[in-house]
Design a protein that fits this description.
Elements: H1 5-10, H2 16-19, H3 21-37, H4 55-63, E1 72-79, H5 86-99, E2 109-110, E3 116-123, H6 128-142, E4 151-155, H7 157-167, H8 171-191, H9 198-222, H10 228-257, H11 263-290, H12 298-328, H13 352-362, H14 364-379, H15 400-411, E5 420-424, H16 428-436, E6 441-450, E7 453-460, H17 467-479, E8 486-489, H18 491-525, H19 529-555, H20 566-596, H21 598-625, H22 633-665
Antiparallel strand pairs: 1-3, 1-4, 2-3, 5-7, 5-8, 6-7
Amino acid sequence: MELSPAGARLLPILRPRIAWILPALYLLVGSALIGVVGTAPVDRSATDQLPDGYDATEVVRLLDEFPSGDDQVALVLFSADRPLAAADRQTLETVFAQAAGGAAPAPLQVAEDGTALVGVLPMPSTDAAELADDVEELRAAVRDGLPDGVHAEVTGPAAIQGDLARVFEGADVTLLVVTASVVALLLIVTYRSPVLGLVPLVVVGVADRLAAVAATHALTGLGVAFDQSTTGILSVLVFGAGTDYALLLISRYRDELHRTPSRSEAMVRAWQRTSEAVLASAATVVVALLVLLLSAFPTTRGLGLACAIGVVVAALAVLVVLPLALAVFPRGIFWPRRPEVGQPTASEGRTVWRRIGDAVARRPLLAAAAGVVLLAVLASGILGIRSGLSEADQFIETPESIAAATRLAESFPAGSADPAVVLTTGNVEEVLAAIESADGVASARPVGEHDGRTRIDVVLDHAPGTPLAREDVASLRSALAEVPGTLVGGADAEDVDSDAATRADRVLVLPLILVVVLLALGLLLRSLVAPIVLVLTVVATYLAALGAGWVLSSTVFGFDRLDVGVPLQAFLFLVALGVDYNIFLVARAAEEARRYGAREGMLRALASTGGVITSAGVLLAAVFAVLGVLPLVVLAQLGIVICIGVLLDTLLVRTVLVPAIALRMGDRFWWPRRVTRG
């Protein structure tokens, strides 16, 4: 392969005496930006995680205008294994009043069985970290001076949000350390070199932190919402995509070192051969991520934009900085497997991947059929999916707020922990009558009025976060449907609206992502048939991963339901990242086919990229599995599905299924493009 004009211009700056300058500046300037500027703080709004245009979201927005603002409510539960005596109740009233900090709280409510009392306190903090601290202070205060045998716990919306915030304390550091450790270990195993893996690890590690700085400040400047999980998922994606690109570049660099004695020339040739694939892959992933800007959820839009910025930073780091960083070091950096001129490359040797390719080539129809059947069997698990993760089930380890809510339901109506909220501009008596006529309502009472709107808290019969509580919300909304100026909100109403918005997102976003990927593959391959085949295999992989992920989540990990957001996010990452491996394999096959024909070109491409794709897939799967270190069920479920999907894509689809289909179809796979020898 002759050097292109651009490659010829790059050759002088890849000389070792010059090549070190840009990587050194990258480390110095990058470290300064990371240390001095840092990531932008989360500017939380109560509606950030709620879908735009829905009743429950509008209720939250309107409540912000009430005199109490968007204060969340904490419930203080005093309980015992015996009926509480009058003296105990008086003592608890005093403890509760002192915990209120001088405010005049409403009297404690006494359970019918006499074993529990509950009090309501507003929590004015809106910042997640401050709210978590306030909840902990309240818990300490209500446990001071309790009668013997009496327990005090704090639950309610504020306590649940505070416990959720605690989950993310130090999460970014934990996730970064674990991710970097996993990547470092797998890079050493992949390259079988204790030194070589450090170079891409440092380059991608700095890119990860730069991406976090750039993304959070861009989101803040543009007024796009994001939350604590955004930077964690961003970090996983940058490490995963960045190391994938690095593996591809270093693999081609090693091949070229077998052909030319000049390290600089070898790197230029490797860069020419990989830059198109990396840029095409990165551009496809970025556009697919930007499709999330059409989501109804503000934080989902923020996640899409943040991850798009991260992929751009990762691709630039690998294509601009990594080649120069590698060019600084002699061939000995590959020790103990130092590449020398004249040694066979992966595509020329009898590697395990070439042997697999030859086996597939002998019976491509059988191999393709077996792959499709296996994916179909795994996908059958979708039929058993139960979606709609309740608030109580979103924590892997049950926090006090959830345990207290369960105890509260034993002595009070189940919905007392988190009442539904009705806002109305109508006649209050008529609205109350309509509310009481609805099924699933335990009680209702007006609790405030502002600007012509009355707030009515409605205690439902069933525990918050359960399917039965959502049915109660549906019944309540049906009863109030004919009452003008009336909205139903609260946690269960938010769950109902979020489910509806998520379904709408799937209908809109999923087809658009497929169209983006299809167009990108069509432009890169200049083919109509190949992109359709590849997209169908990616969709089949996604369905199999979702089915197998649900079976694993429900049977091994004991998760009762699948979070409604997991299918969409898993689809995005599996389809967008699956394009990487499609492009790596098929672009190499097209390159080899120009010299060796369609059949031999695919086999040589599999032989040369099999190790790279497998290494990249195992690494990416492990990186997404790291999400399980955070004690949230939704992130664990997302990590499980993506991990399974990436492994299927790597070990089955890109190794067996796609080559089998391409070998069976021959030149028709590339139609209307002609793939000829020479």
